[in-house]
Amino acid sequence: MKRVSEIFNNIEEFLVVILLFVMTVVVFWQVICRFVLKASLPWSEEFSRYVLVWASFLGASIGVKRGAHIGVEAFTMILPDKLKKFIQYLAIILSVIFCLVVLKESLGIIQKQIVNDQVSPAMRIPMWWAYSAIPTGMLLMAIRFLQTMVRISRPSAKEAK
């Protein structure tokens, strides 16, 4: 069970590293083809764009997990501990609600793309594959926000005394 937990906790990092590596290789190869071989890869720009979108949404989940998203700590630092905790909970709840609303709306967009059979211009892949980064990222972010709420709910060593 611990192994499954470790895999889930690190899956975003693994995927982002792989995606950025593949994107780098494709862009590097495109530069070589264009300037050395004098031939262009018609699909490389589109591919790189979609990979960057996926890496960005997965990276946002990593940011939530690490607590790296922008916050206004100067304001909360001057508050009493109980009010500070309330503000943290409120921010997390609002963030989860935001993620779930974006998730729901993005699923509607993807459903329309599937129905209309929309494909990308250069690679001719279904556009819902590219747009699936949005609900995937939002779902992972919501999970990470809920994990953060559980983590801050546990008493710290200082509070346990």
The radius of gyration computed from the alpha-carbon positions, rounded to a whole number of angstroms, is: 20 Å
Continuous helix count = 7
In total, the number of domains comes to 1
Number of strands: 0
Order of helix and strand elements from N to C terminus:
HHHHHHH
Low-pLDDT segments, ≥5 res: none
- Beta percentage is under 5%
What gap, in angstroms, lies between the N and C termini? Answer: 31 Å
Summarize the biggest pleated sheet.
none
Mean pLDDT: 89
The level of helicity is over 70%
Query: How would you describe the shape?
Result: elongated
Structural class based on helices, strands and sheet pairing: mainly alpha
Structure notes:
There is one protein chain. With 161 residues, the protein is mainly α. The chain has one domain (2-160). It has 7 helices and no strands. The protein starts with a helix and ends with a helix. The relative contact order is 0.12.
Features:
single chain, 0% strand, mainly alpha
Outline of the structure:
By secondary structure, the protein is an all-alpha fold. It is built from seven helices and no strands.
Topology:
Elements: H1 2-35, H2 44-66, H3 73-77, H4 81-116, H5 127-131, H6 133-153, H7 157-160
Helix pairs in contact: 1-2, 2-6, 4-6
